[in-house]
C-alpha cells in the first residue's frame, strides 16, 4: 500500500512539474552610449560588447586642449538595475576627468564604483561628461584610448564605449 501511495504522489508531482512554467533567469542588460566632438548623435544604442566596437568616437586635439565626450546609459534588461560604471584613468600625457551634473565624479568612476540606478527601459537623464586634456609631455600622434564600462549589478553583463583622443 505504501508503494502505491509513493508512486501516486510521484506521478502527481511529475505531472504538475511538466505543466508549470520554468522560472527564467533575470536578465540584466546595460547599454552604454557615447557622443563626442565629431559625432552628431549618440553611438552604441543596442550594441553590446566589451571593446567599444561600433560605439567609439574620436577627437584630434592639440597640446593644452580638451576633448569632451558625453556618455549615457540605458537599462535594456528585464528589471531595475543598479549599474556600476568604471572608466579609464589619466596618465602623465593626458588628464582625464568625469563630471555628472557639474560635480566631479572622477574618483568614483576610475575606481569602478560610480552607481547608475535605472528602471527597466529607462535612460539616464543626465549624461556623464568625460574630458581628456592633452598635457605637456604629449607628442604629436600620442593617443589616449579611454574605455568606459557599465556593468550589471550582479556582474552578469556589461557594455563598453570607447573615447579616443589623439594629439595633432
Task: Describe the fold and architecture.
It is a single chain. The chain has 168 residues and is mainly beta. Helices cover 14% and strands 41% of the residues. The protein has two helices and ten strands. The protein has helices at residues 2-19, 106-111, and strands at 30-35, 56-61, 66-75, 81-87, 94-100, 103-104, 114-118, 128-134, 143-151, 158-167. Strands 1-3-8-5-6 form a five-stranded antiparallel β-sheet. A hairpin with a 6-residue loop joins strand 9 (143-151) and strand 10 (158-167). The longest helix has 18 residues, at 2-19. The radius of gyration is 23 Å and the shape is elongated. The model is unreliable at 6-14 (pLDDT under 50).
Reading side by side through the largest sheet, how are the strands ordered?
1-3-8-5-6
> Counting H and I runs of at least 4 residues, what is the number of helices?
2
The string of secondary-structure elements, in order, is HEEEEEEHEEEE
Strand elements, count: 10
Strand content: 35-45%
The amount of helix comes to: 10-25%
Structural class designation: mainly beta
* Radius of gyration (Å): 23 Å
Biggest beta sheet summary: 5 strands, antiparallel
Low-confidence parts lasting 5 or more residues at pLDDT below 50? 6-14
N→C terminal distance? 88 Å
**Mean pLDDT, nearest integer?**
89
**Overall shape:** elongated
Amino acid at each position: 500500500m505504501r508503494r502505491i501511495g509513493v508512486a501516486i504522489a510521484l506521478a502527481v508531482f511529475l505531472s504538475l512539474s511538466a505543466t508549470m512554467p520554468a522560472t527564467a533567469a533575470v536578465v540584466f542588460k546595460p547599454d552604454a552610449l557615447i557622443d563626442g566632438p565629431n559625432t552628431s548623435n549618440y553611438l552604441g544604442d543596442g550594441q553590446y560588447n566589451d571593446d567599444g566596437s561600433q560605439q567609439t568616437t574620436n577627437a584630434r586635439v592639440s597640446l593644452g586642449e580638451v576633448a569632451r565626450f558625453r556618455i549615457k546609459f540605458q537599462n535594456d534588461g528585464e528589471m531595475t538595475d543598479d549599474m556600476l560604471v568604471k572608466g579609464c584613468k589619466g596618465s602623465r600625457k593626458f588628464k582625464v576627468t568625469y563630471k555628472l551634473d557639474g560635480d566631479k565624479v572622477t574618483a568614483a568612476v576610475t575606481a569602478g564604483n560610480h552607481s547608475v540606478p535605472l528602471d527597466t527601459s529607462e535612460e539616464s537623464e543626465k549624461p556623464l561628461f568625460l574630458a581628456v586634456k592633452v598635457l605637456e609631455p604629449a607628442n604629436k600622434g600620442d593617443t589616449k584610448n579611454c574605455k568606459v564600462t557599465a556593468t550589471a549589478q550582479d556582474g552578469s553583463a556589461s557594455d563598453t564605449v570607447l573615447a579616443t583622443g589623439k594629439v595633432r
